[in-house]
Amino acid sequence: MTASHPISILLVEDEPADAYLVRTAFKEGKVLAQLHHVRDGVEAFAFLRREAGFADAPRPDLILLDLNMPRMDGRQFLASIKQDPDLVSIPVVVLTTSDAESDLLSSYERSVAGYIVKPIDIDEFVRLVRGLNHYWVSIVSLPDH
Known about the structure:
The chain is an alpha/beta fold. It is about 40% helix and about 15% strand. It has a single domain (about 5-135), classed as 3-Layer(aba) Sandwich (Rossmann fold).
């Protein structure tokens, strides 16, 4: 993956306002990425397995995951994805409002690539997204699929 090609990012987020904030931050941060959005872990697995209306879904290079969602929350999603040999290599970054030490520890125990507490300020959020973009597009080498 190079900076001249957009990476594919799957945002797993149930709150419409937070999803909008992420999309806005990506746009304002001029992030070179294809952002796909699903509302919970159940939809995320449908997307990743190209089921239930997601037949043409690309394999994401990165997953941004909220922890607190209905049906299948981020904790359950992490436990499941890290046991799936076809999906385990996709890096997952937790992007959540929770600053609880127990959530931080359990996320890293489930092999997340990073844990970020969502900033409330839009300017700070844009800076955070630019940093994510720089790290995941310019610095890190991601496997081809």
